[in-house]
């Protein structure tokens, strides 16, 4: 037995690194005629960037046994199209925009190794199934060394095309990747994988995946000590942690091959794990992700399985720098078929042909979750009712018009005007947040700003109550004619004729309703009975006793819904605080991402005068807002040199409410590396600072 030495990896905290890096690069000095050094913490407001809806799934592409009873049976192991169909089904059913796959066959036909005769690989089939909007990257996995392959092998077996790999796909264009080989000795008896991280154009969040090898079996067999096995495992987790440490927003998923949280604790220390908590009553946390026969007992003559039981374990995890709004292990997608003769008499070694019918596509279940991100519905109400990741557009009807006041607004007559979606926006059984700017005309009666209709009554309502002049956020206990509505009521009187930011939060796990007025907590109420309101989402009225009711008399703008409950701090930031710029980029780009690769990861621009681009937003949609930039020459990172930008205050152009703004920099030096960042301002207050972004000039 040889000793397996391992190298410990230093613990790092993502947010701490970003803050330190920001302070080092620009400091606090002010250079006459040059860009002002912007200081402060990086932005951490998840609602300012789109949600990542990601899945991790070990699809056992060619691993495991080929028939039940051979151990770790992999259904459809030689059917790439079946694997692709299963992945696509989960993606579409859960509206995912990112996937992380393990044990998948990727890449081209390899003569002499693959016997698939050039047929599409599993990843090719998955890409074709999901369509041209998706892009993929993959990284090789090596099996243990053998006499024939002393350095290990990575070709896909069983007549399959391609290379055994881990892969990441996004609904977008991947323009950056980073790969690290896991520190696993080739003779350690386990596969040696690579950790893969990717970035996509326009995405602030990066995605990373890995398949971690576990050496506990080798320790039990006496081929190494338990301390050596634990060390090798810790080294792999250290690689993952180092890779994600410099990424300000990241989602990490993979098969980590352990049910022991202590082994994965370094990731728990700095990241959220999606299934460590429940998200609504009845939602189970820490669900199993791997299903294996409880015993390997088979009939020695027929080969028939004699035990139908399965053992379960939680081996697959999904982490993020941002909190999650939901998570689930789709356990039905893991094979749990009963292969005993009583259930499947043709599934033995005697019957020809042998027919075994699985219930799933892999011995693992997919784990999917959504990070807390931008609004699912995002209507500026500046002439249209559209926007947001949910894709629903509202149809105005009755007495409505579009106001031309700064930022725009929807004006409703209090009699018949409303905007209605073709279907539901909120799942009233789960947590959500609704928010809008509203201005009630003086003298108005009781009127609803927005509602999610049921059949008889709206399942959620945000309204002005005229008799006592209060703002209210309520949810009925049932879809019936009775007025059994739990209500969070403002403690102070509402002002008419004044723009007010209203935010209603339903926390399904805490079973509470909370109303915020201009970002401040205004009232709370319990709400313990939930039901699904499946009617349209409406701005400008509600539904009571099956009739349209309480039409809004006044103006509404900036209507938003979120699929998570905002905290008090988030509601305050959302209503009052300028947030750091998002969707950062430097254009034109020639050979890679030139936007926000942190800690020395540089994209390349093909111009000596690139344009820096950010998206800015003000909590008040009527206010002008712009960006202030800082730029420095970072060719020698030990002596960063600020660069004069040639504009007063290094300011960009202006936008009303929100929008994309740009700044074209003065001529830079070909071959030099640069860092930049920005903050949002309205001339009175300023936001936190964006993360540091990097690019290299290669103008040719």
What topology emerges from the helices and strands here?
Blueprint: H1 14-26, E1 53-58, H2 80-93, E2 98-106, H3 122-130, E3 134-140, E4 163-171, E5 174-181, E6 194-200, E7 206-211, H4 216-220, H5 226-245, E8 250-255, H6 261-268, E9 272-273, E10 290-293, E11 310-313, E12 316-320, E13 324-329, E14 367-371, E15 377-379, E16 395-397, E17 400-403, E18 409-413, E19 418-420, E20 432-440, E21 447-453, E22 458-465, E23 470-476, E24 485-489, E25 500-507, E26 512-517, E27 520-526, E28 537-539, E29 542-544, E30 547-549, E31 553-562, H7 568-576, E32 582-587, E33 603-605, E34 611-617, E35 624-633, E36 641-642, E37 655-656, E38 658-664, E39 673-681, E40 686-689, E41 693-697
Parallel strand pairs: 1-2, 7-8, 33-41
Antiparallel strand pairs: 1-14, 2-4, 3-4, 5-6, 6-7, 8-12, 9-12, 10-11, 13-14, 15-31, 16-19, 17-18, 18-31, 19-28, 20-25, 20-31, 21-22, 21-28, 22-23, 23-24, 25-26, 26-27, 29-30, 32-34, 34-38, 35-36, 35-37, 35-39, 39-40, 39-41
Helix pairs in contact: 2-3, 5-6
């Amino acid at each position: 037995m040889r000793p397996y030495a391992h190298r410990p990896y230093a613990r790092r905290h993502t947010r701490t690194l970003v803050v330190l890096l920001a302070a080092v690069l620009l400091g606090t000095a002010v250079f006459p005629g040059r860009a002002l050094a912007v200081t402060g913490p990086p932005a951490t407001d998840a609602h300012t960037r789109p949600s990542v809806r990601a899945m991790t799934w070990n699809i056992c592409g060619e691993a495991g046994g080929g028939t039940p009873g051979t151990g770790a049976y992999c259904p459809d192991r030689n059917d790439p199209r079946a694997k692709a169909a299963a992945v696509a089904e989960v993606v579409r059913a859960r509206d995912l925009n990112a996937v992380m796959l393990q044990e998948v066959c990727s890449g081209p036909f390899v003569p002499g190794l693959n016997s698939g005769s050039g047929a599409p690989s599993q990843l090719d089939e998955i890409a074709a199934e999901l369509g041209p909007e998706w892009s993929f990257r993959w990284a090789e996995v090596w099996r243990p060394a053998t006499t024939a392959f002393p350095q290990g092998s990575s070709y896909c077996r069983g007549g399959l095309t391609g290379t055994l790999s881990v892969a990441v796909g996004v609904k977008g264009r991947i323009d950056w990747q980073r790969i690290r080989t896991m520190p696993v000795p080739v003779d350690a008896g386990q596969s040696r994988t690579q950790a893969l991280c990717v970035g996509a154009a326009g995405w602030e969040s990066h995605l990373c995946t890995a398949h971690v090898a576990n050496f506990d079996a080798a320790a039990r067999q006496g081929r190494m000590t338990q301390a050596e096995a634990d060390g090798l495992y810790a080294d792999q987790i250290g690689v993952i942690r180092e890779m994600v440490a410099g990424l300000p927003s990241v989602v990490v998923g993979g098969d980590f091959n352990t049910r022991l949280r202590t082994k994965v604790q370094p990731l728990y220390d700095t990241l959220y794990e999606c299934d460590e908590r429940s998200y609504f009553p009845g939602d189970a946390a820490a669900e199993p992700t791997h299903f294996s026969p409880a015993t390997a007992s088979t009939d020695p003559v027929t080969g028939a399985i004699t035990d139908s039981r399965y053992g379960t374990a939680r081996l697959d995890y999904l982490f993020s720098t941002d909190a999650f709004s939901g998570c689930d292990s789709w356990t039905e997608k893991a094979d749990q078929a009963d292969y005993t003769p009583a259930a499947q008499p043709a599934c033995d070694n005697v019957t020809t042909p042998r027919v075994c019918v699985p219930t799933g596509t892999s011995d693992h279940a997919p784990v999917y979750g959504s990070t807390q991100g931008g609004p699912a519905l995002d209507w500026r109400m500046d002439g249209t009712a559209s926007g947001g990741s949910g894709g629903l557009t509202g149809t105005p009807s009755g007495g409505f018009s579009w106001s031309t006041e700064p930022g725009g607004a929807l004006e409703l007559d209090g009699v018949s005007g409303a905007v209605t979606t073709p279907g539901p926006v909120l799942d009233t059984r789960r947590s959500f947040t609704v928010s809008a700017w509203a201005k009630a005309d003086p003298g108005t009666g009781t009127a609803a700003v927005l509602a999610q209709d049921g059949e008889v009554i709206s399942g959620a309502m945000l309204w002005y109550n005229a008799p006592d002049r209060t703002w209210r956020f309520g949810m009925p206990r049932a879809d019936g004619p009775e007025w059994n509505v739990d209500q969070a009521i403002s403690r102070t009187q509402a002002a008419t004729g004044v723009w007010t930011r209203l935010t209603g939060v339903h926390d399904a796990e805490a079973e509470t309703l909370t109303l915020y007025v201009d970002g401040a907590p205004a009232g709370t109420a319990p709400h313990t009975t939930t039901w699904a309101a499946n009617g349209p989402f409406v701005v400008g009225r509600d539904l009571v006793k099956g009739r349209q009711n309480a039409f809004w008399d006044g103006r509404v703008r900036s209507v938003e819904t979120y699929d998570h409950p905002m905290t008090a701090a988030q509601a305050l930031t959302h209503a009052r605080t300028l947030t750091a710029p998002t969707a950062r980029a430097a254009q034109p780009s020639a050979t890679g991402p030139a936007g926000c690769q942190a800690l020395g990861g540089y994209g390349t621009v093909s111009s000596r005068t690139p344009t820096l681009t950010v998206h800015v937003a003000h909590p008040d949609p009527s206010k002008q807002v712009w960006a202030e930039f800082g730029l420095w020459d970072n060719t020698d990172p030990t002596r960063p040199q600020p660069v004069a930008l040639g504009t007063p205050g290094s300011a960009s152009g202006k936008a009303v409410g929100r929008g994309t703004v740009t700044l074209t920099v003065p001529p830079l030096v070909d071959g030099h590396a640069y860092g930049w960042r920005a903050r949002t301002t309205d001339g009175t207050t300023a936001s936190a600072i964006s993360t540091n972004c990097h690019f290299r000039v290669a103008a040719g």
